[in-house]
Amino acid sequence: MNIDAAVSQIRNFKDFLQLYNKLTEHCFTKCVDNFYSRTISANETRCVENCFGKFTNVNQKILGVYIGVQQEINARRIAEIEAQQNAAVDA
Q: Structure pTM?
């Protein structure tokens, strides 16, 4: 494994942890409304599950759209490069 790959993996892991921490904080703030008990109430549990579920569903949809758009962008870039190469060969 080269240094660039290791740095990239560390950066990706840090990004994941930051996102996870932000989501955890958001759902905790939204769903936990009292500290009178050591246990989590059924309403709090349901709220947290819904909060994480919504995030996961939205994230999957966004990634799906991103992948589709990225494939189109890559196809256009390849076509442009091929056109430039053909123009250079014809010149």
A: 0.59
